[in-house]
């Protein structure tokens, strides 16, 4: 699907593209910590560190399409947004703005905005995964000095290449109000924490497990008012704009697959799979446009955001599987007797083992991500039932060319979808 932007949006898209090209190591596989720090500094200086926040708290004042343009550019060039302030930008900051005390806002918001403070979410628990209502971690003393007890698992980004996280956002049940929950800030180096680490299936993604034994904290570390479980059920999700730009990640992966298929031009089966996924991707782009148009109009999303996550995750999984199929036999290394060192490996062209490095890891990482999203309540039966209708509409319109000259034009296009 080809998307024509209004002149004003084209100018902004060009500005964003030039910014990413100038400050992010585009095309470089192994991004170094110093490069990440330089990128972070440039984004903060540009005033784009917390674009979705209200302007009085440092937000960029972008419209819906500008947010998506930014997210798509970052996705297209492999900018890992977790290298920013982690969960601070997408979760902690917005919740502080919405329901935090003045003391908590004063302590945390400015350091989150400038990316001087790095956060990760302590949400999952060993016994109940992501079901808030079943969580057993408790906090005593809400409204005064706090005391935390419990255990959290599957915590991402506590240790990172650009520096460890400074804070954990811990979701806990109020001991004196069993039906109410709060989000609590815990210093990552607090002596009351016992931290262990393990890797997920991809062998690369590291997760932390944290036990809290009578962790005492001051009152301003309680970040939110006590609220019911459903208020916190989707804390682990990415921002709405990042969700509506995931097709850019899939499009970049499809380009890599095309580069491999160009060397395997006689494989009709792989080409057919590729074309089928290209149509599915175009359908996803159509759905994203409809959602962006709804946001621009201040209307409810025409497709549930959970469904968008599921659909984009499904396409990424299928692309990963196709990528593995493309390498197939050619990427199976074996000891080469021509070399004295038996550890040296060899394989046949036109595709070498170096090209396959990371492909299986990424495919497994996508599976882990899809598991988290579905296990957190996104994959309900009712939601999947609604998916068939939405995806059928998207597929039938996937090959249309959508021109988005203005929000009004986009709305007319969405109506035709």
Short description, anyone?
With 417 residues, the protein is of the alpha/beta class. 46% of the residues lie in helices and 16% in strands.
Structure write-up:
The chain has 417 residues and is α/β, with parallel strands linked by helices. Helices cover 46% and strands 16% of the residues. It contains 13 helices and eleven strands. The chain has helices at 7-23, 33-46, 64-76, 87-99, 102-113, 240-243, 246-261, 268-297, 305-327, 353-356, 359-378, 381-397, 407-416, and strands spanning 3-5, 119-122, 138-140, 146-156, 167-174, 177-187, 193-199, 206-217, 334-335, 345-346, 402-404. The strands form three sheets. Strands 2, 3, 4, 5, 6, 7 and 8 form a seven-stranded mixed beta sheet that branches. A two-stranded parallel sheet has the order 1-11. Helix 7 (246-261) packs antiparallel against helix 8 and helix 8 packs antiparallel against helix 9. The longest helix is centred in the C-terminal third of the chain and has 30 residues, at 268-297. It is globular. The model is unreliable at 339-344 and 375-417 (pLDDT under 50).
